[in-house]
Design goal:
By secondary structure, the protein is mainly β. It has 3 helices and 22 strands. The strands form 6 sheets. It has a 4-stranded antiparallel beta sheet, with no helix packed on it. A 4-stranded antiparallel beta sheet has the order 2-3-4-5, with no helix packed on it. Strands 8-9-10-11 form a 4-stranded antiparallel beta sheet, with no helix packed on it.
Length: 343
């Protein structure tokens, strides 16, 4: 028994569909080199900010920016172990929901009901639609992964938090070093801190476990991540302080760059990205720098957080791309003229 093709004969295609196909082919062909140029990821280091713990003295400025960060319009949101901070575009502090005094007195920004559960560590964060998604866990074993939701406008707790679950092979061990939001797909992401080749995918509305994304390379010590388009950018606290990205459709992993390594003990932390209207990207990466190898002593005046700002220019089509596009448009015009000619 022979199957019958339901595809129309090319000679009988609707002329309008032919024109649409020509335009689509021309645009796709012309723009593919531009997309390839964007994928080359030629990031340039634009500047480095240093946030010292004791500049001004007793301020603990750096500590409030030591776990994660996200872009929220013209502001930045930072996280530290016990709270959140808003800053303007020039990193001037606008608001904090927590405080650590020079005498060691702590006013945490983690709500008391969550602290009572042992949730005493905020990791990297993300922001979407006015809500901060903060990863939370217990520093005594890191086996209580949660995500808590805060209002980005004033850092107040929304009253919503969700327990995170992983795969049967690792249901709860160190899953909440970070969370990343993929609003376009309705997902949130997380990953076990230990070496592994899967990303946990959660339903964004309630952070229930959905499935795993299989990676083609194993990654470890991921401290922060953010979504841009079809890519998940990740900061790894490995020996090279590497930024990776993984394709969210295929699981393909690429190395983007390695952060500079100043003298001292180093720990990479959160990552943030901004996609600009012209197609360019800004990327920010936090690195704790302990030049005196003091085990990150809060009394060390030299302990600080470096914030590396990288830029990726918008892709520009190469000359041959324009030629292909003009050729396709010329063919389109020819078809239009042919249709307009009386038979």
């Amino acid at each position: 028994m022979h199957s019958r093709s339901t595809s129309p004969c090319p000679s009988r295609l609707n002329p309008a569909k032919q024109l649409g196909a020509v335009v689509g082919l021309a645009l796709a062909t012309a723009m593919s080199p531009a997309l390839a140029a964007q994928d080359s990821q030629n990031w340039q280091l634009a500047d480095v900010q240093a946030f010292y713990l004791h500049q001004p003295p007793g301020s603990f400025t750096g500590i409030y920016r030591s776990q994660g960060m996200a872009v929220n319009g013209n502001e930045f949101v930072f996280s530290w172990q016990y709270g959140l901070e808003r800053s303007d575009a020039n990193f001037n502090s606008l608001q904090r929901n927590s405080n650590l005094s020079i005498t060691g007195q702590l006013s945490p920004g983690i709500p008391m009901p969550l602290l009572a559960q042992g949730l005493d560590h905020i990791g990297d964060i993300d922001v979407h639609d006015g809500i901060i998604y903060a990863s939370l866990d217990n520093t005594h074993g890191y086996k209580q992964p949660h995500v808590a939701l805060f209002n980005a406008a004033d850092l107040s707790y929304t009253g919503k938090s969700y327990q995170l679950a992983g795969t049967a092979a690792n249901p709860n061990d160190d899953l909440a070093s970070w969370v990343a939001v993929d609003a376009a797909r309705g997902y949130g992401y997380g990953k076990e801190w230990r070496n592994g080749n899967t990303i946990n995918v959660y339903n964004l509305n309630d952070w229930s476990f959905s499935h795993t994304l299989q990676l083609d390379s194993s990654l470890s010590r991921i401290q922060g991540a953010k979504v841009v388009g079809d890519w998940l950018y990740m900061a790894s606290d490995n020996a090279n302080q590497t930024i990776y990205r993984s394709h969210l459709l295929t699981g393909h992993v690429e190395e983007v760059l390695n952060i500079p390594k100043p003298e001292g003990d180093l720990e990479i932390e959160g990552i943030a990205l901004r996609q600009n209207s012209n197609g360019s990207l800004d990327m920010y990466v936090e690195l704790i720098v302990d030049p005196d190898r003091s085990d990150q002593s809060l009394s060390n005046p030299n302990l600080h957080v470096n914030l590396y700002h990288y830029q990726l220019a918008a892709a520009v089509p190469e000359p041959q791309s324009y030629a292909l596009l003009l050729g396709g448009l010329g063919l389109l015009a020819g078809l239009r003229r042919k249709r307009a000619t009386p038979q």
